[in-house]
Amino acid sequence: MGMPKKLTKALREKRRWVGFQCIEGSTEKSLRRDLSSLGAKLIQFQNDRAILSVTLSNYEELLKNINGLGHKTLTSSGKIRLVRERIGLEKDSKRSKK
Q: For the residues 80-87, what does the mean pLDDT come to?
């Protein structure tokens, strides 16, 4: 038996990228802890801004919870490049090296 076929792009679960302003004093560790319970993954954290990834099915609930924790959502998109441009973050150099 061979490997199962890879899902096509149309069949994969859709994701949204959310850019937000963190509350003062937030650390990467505290954000990861808060977001794990919300079904989101922290992708990038610089200064007081962050980008996270969430499935489309959890998107609306996540926005309510992020803002409820005191953070401020700034933008969201289906493309991480657009979120980075809108909130002024550079591509994370340590992840781009292969």
A: 95
